[in-house]
Every structure is written in structure tokens, then in C-alpha cells.
UniProtKB/TrEMBL annotation:
Matches recorded under InterPro entries: DHOase/Allantoinase_Hydrolase, Metal-dep_hydrolase_composite, Metal_Hydrolase
Keyword Nucleotide-binding in record: no
Protein name: Amidohydrolase
SUPFAM superfamilies with a match to the protein in the record: Composite domain of metallo-dependent hydrolases (SSF51338), Metallo-dependent hydrolases (SSF51556)
Any one Gene Ontology molecular-function term assigned to this protein's record: allantoinase activity
One GO term describing the cellular component: cytoplasm
Length: 242
């Protein structure tokens, strides 16, 4: 068992403790309260109790970074560790961050050491639709045991990023108009794909079976309300229009 005592506890659930304690058993919090409570004396009598004195310190739940790219660009590594943007196609909703994220990157341990226990990480903003984000704990020996939710969102981007990347390749989008049109077209295609899929599922007929489309399957999660879109924008006007 582990006892953290004498710290100012911010529970983030209404009640805080000026001189609090947290009792942890088998990796789980079992008690939280004021350290002056008589109950604490019983706790202190436990022979196998490890004690951490948090005097003059704050104790709060682990922080969550709701948008980052941890593990997608490996620290201090060049091209070999650069896996954040697939800059060959502006529409890549089927790409999954979990297939690229390097969970042994030192950025995970640095985040954890500074209080961040969960990150939502994923592709960058080169593409109009960049791919799927994943929510991960910042600790673990296998990526599978770190996953909180996958996918957790799909990344889309407006503004300078897509137009800069694809203008250099002499292809769309090279304007904000094209960026908006490509996103709109992709969502409309996904809607049509959903209608065909729903029709087939309600009355299976091989003649009506839609051809499997991995990109559209990824966007169905958005249309069905299973996951949100994370939108990268530079202009306030764009954010308001969304």
C-alpha cells in the first residue's frame, strides 16, 4: 500500500483537501480525505505501508493533452522517425495513428514526468483529411495496453497547411476553396456510401452490395456520431463557419 500525505489535494470533483491524504492499494486509489482524520492513524499502523510526504505540494489527477502529436514525430530523429503526415494524397481518413505512433519515444516519459498521463495524438495538418487520432496512456510496455480509445477522432485541416503542401506538388488543394470543396465532396461521398450500405444491410441483395471502401468506412464513424472531427484552422472565420 502507498500513502501520500500532507499535500493540498485538488480532486477536480468539487471537494478539495488542504492537508489531505491519498491511500493507494494495488495501483488503485481506495481512500481520499483530510490527513487529520482519526482513520489515518489506523492506516499508519499498516506494516507494509510506503509513505510519501507531499508537504507544500499540490496533488491532482493526471493531466490530459487533448491534442498533440506525441510519438508521431520521434524526438531527435529525422526522416526515419517522421510519420505524422502522408503527403501523397489529400484525403486519408483511413490512416490510423496507432499504426505509426512510437510509444517508446522519450516524449511519452517526459510527458508523464510532468503530470500528463493521457494524450490524444495523431496525424498532422498536411492533408485535408489526415487520419484517425488515438487516445493513449503515457505509460505501458505494449501499445495495446496503453490504448484508452481508438479511434477517438478524425483530423481535418484548413488554411495554409494543405494548400502549401499540395501547391508545391501542383495539385489540389492549392486554395482554401479547394480545401473546403475536397472536404465537402468527401463527406457527401461518405453519406452516399452510408445510404447504400444501410440499404444493403436492411435488405441484402448481392446486386446492391456496395464495393468496400476503406476511406468511406472510416468516415462512417463520423457520420454515425461515433467519433468527432478535430479541425485545424488558422482563421477565426473558418472556425465560426464550422
Amino acid at each position: 500500500m502507498l500513502l501520500i500525505k500532507n499535500g493540498k489535494i485538488l480532486t477536480m470533483a468539487g471537494k478539495n483537501y488542504e492537508n489531505g491524504y491519498i491511500l493507494i492499494d494495488a495501483g488503485k486509489i481506495v481512500e481520499v480525505g483530510e490527513y487529520t482524520s482519526p482513520l489515518n492513524q489506523e492506516v499508519l499502523n499498516e506494516g507494509n505501508l510506503e509513505i510519501i510526504d507531499a508537504k507544500n505540494k499540490y496533488i491532482l489527477p493526471g493531466l490530459i493533452d487533448a491534442h498533440c502529436h506525441v510519438g508521431m514525430w520521434e524526438d531527435s530523429v529525422g526522416f526515419e522517425g517522421d510519420d505524422g503526415n502522408e503527403m501523397t494524397d489529400p484525403v486519408t481518413p483511413h490512416l490510423r495513428a496507432i499504426d505509426a505512433v512510437y510509444y517508446l519515444d522519450r516524449a511519452f516519459s517526459e510527458a508523464r514526468e510532468n503530470g500528463v498521463t493521457t494524450v490524444v495524438t495523431g496525424p498532422g495538418s498536411a492533408n485535408v483529411i489526415g487520419g484517425q487520432f488515438v487516445a493513449l496512456k503515457t505509460y505501458g510496455r505494449r501499445i495495446e495496453e496503453m490504448v484508452v480509445k481508438e479511434p477517438v477522432a478524425i483530423k481535418v485541416a484548413f488554411g495554409e497547411n494543405p494548400k502549401t503542401v499540395y501547391n508545391e506538388r501542383k495539385m489540389a488543394p492549392s486554395t482554401r476553396m479547394a480545401t473546403a470543396a475536397i472536404l465537402r465532396e468527401s463527406l457527401m461521398k461518405a453519406k452516399e456510401y452510408k445510404e447504400m450500405t444501410d440499404k444493403y444491410n436492411s435488405n441484402p441483395d448481392e446486386n446492391d452490395k456496395p464495393e468496400y471502401d476503406m476511406k468511406m468506412e472510416a468516415l462512417l464513424k463520423v457520420l454515425n456520431g461515433e467519433i468527432p472531427i478535430k479541425a485545424h484552422a488558422h482563421r477565426r472565420m473558418t472556425s465560426l463557419q464550422l
